[in-house]
Structures are given as structure tokens and as C-alpha cells.
């Protein structure tokens, strides 16, 4: 038997915390109370924790239960984003809202935004194209999509744009890499001279790095390996291939868990704006405007999780 908690048990735990009653939580999920009680007991055995305190006044989460419920809620939200994003990829033809997004934005931000939009408009038919920042303007100008998201250093010429999030690039290495033990910041010349695991040309991440190095008077970076997504770059660094410059969005959890180490760099600025762009000079209307409003309410600006790029 798998030791992973099942999703229905996680939903049940979250609901018990919300309503303070196992019977009411079970009713909301269409479960008989004995079945719900068995589910919670199985979840507690699998996690090795007492999650629910059962009293005459009802069921209350323990301290451990409240902590697990918070994590369970995040898992459920991430799953909702995954399913929404996958559905948007399947239904990109004849969609009521057609969206194009650069790779990093599509991987880490768009599923959550679309999930929120679909909760507001469950009938909405959304199509998503995932590409690099260089191609998003072409899709907008051709009329293939209604709204785009890019991570390039500058907004495309002739297209209205609005900042929807702030991101920064980090130099990251595996814990066993010599840079992980540095006591001094990495110099920009050292970064420019080092073979790096890089995103492909045309991506916003690569364009941001190239421009930052040029502004610092350096040549373009030396590619050790060029890959087509932030996830692929992250995995290559974790495997010990070499250092990389990557969005903090892609490695926040890895930095917190020490699977990767951020290396401080001096003499270069690697911050960037993530933007929504569209083809018309007129204000957006309908589903595209609603999605833009969602992004403004849920700005996932990255927090400081490791070394700072100066």
C-alpha cells in the first residue's frame, strides 16, 4: 500500500479544520461518517501524527493537524492549478480566452491565475500556448491569442504592457559545488567566464542574463548546456552538471530545503519585471481583462530566500 496520503483524505482534513466537525465535513464530501473517520485514522497512521482531537463538542485539529492542513491546502491548490493548466493546454482551439505565456511564467504562475479565474467563471473555456518570450508578441500580432505573458527585460515595441509580478535571477549550484562554500561574493567577470547551464536563446531568462552582462561590460555567458525550461535547468544543476542562472520562482523550495545553494554575485543586477502584453491599444475587455485583474490581485513577488544579487 502506498504511504502517500490520498487527496480525499487531505480534503477531509482541511474541511474538519474549517467546520470543526467530522460529520459536517464528511457530509460536504458525500462520505458516511464511519468512512470519513476511517480515512482520517489511515491518514494519521501514514503520517505518524495525531491530527484530530475528537471530543463531545466536535472534532478539532491538533497543533500538528493545523500545520498539516495548511500544507494540504497548498497541495490541493497546486493540484487545482495543474488540472486547470492541463485543461487549458488541451483546449487551446476555439477557446473563449486564448493565452500565450513564456516558459517560466507558464510553469510557476499561470496555472494559479487560471485556477482563480475558473473559480470565478467556471463556464469559461481557456486555451494556453506555452512558448518563449520572443514568440509571444508574434502570436499577439497575428491574432492567435488575446493576452500574453513575458519575462523579457523590456516590453515589446508597439504592444501595451503591464507589470504583473517581479522576479529575479539567481546563480545556483548543487551543495557539492565549490561555489557553495565561497565566503566572498562571486565577481561578475567570474560569472561571465564560467561555463553555465543556460536557457535557450529567445527565452526571457537568457535575454535578461545576456543584457545584464553586457551592461556590466562582459561578453555573453559561456553555455555548458542549453535547455528549454526552468525545470530542466534546475534538474541539471541538482544533478551536478554545473552552475546556472535561473528564476527564483523555480528554485525557492530547493533553496529552503538546501537541495540547491544560491551564490551571491556582485557587480550585476539580475532583477526583472514579468509583464502581461496584448495587441490592442484599447483597454482589455471580457475574459482577458478579468485574467489581468486576477494577476494584479495575486502578485507572487519573490521574497529573499538566499544570497542576493547586487
From TrEMBL:
GO terms for molecular function: DNA-binding transcription factor activity; transcription cis-regulatory region binding. It holds the Pfam family LysR_substrate. Residues 5-62 form the HTH lysR-type domain. It comes from the Bacteria. Keywords: DNA-binding, Transcription, Transcription regulation. SUPFAM superfamilies: Periplasmic binding protein-like II, Winged helix' DNA-binding domain. PANTHER family: HTH-TYPE TRANSCRIPTIONAL REGULATOR, HTH-TYPE TRANSCRIPTIONAL REGULATOR CYSL. Belongs to the LysR transcriptional regulatory family. This is Transcriptional regulator, LysR family.
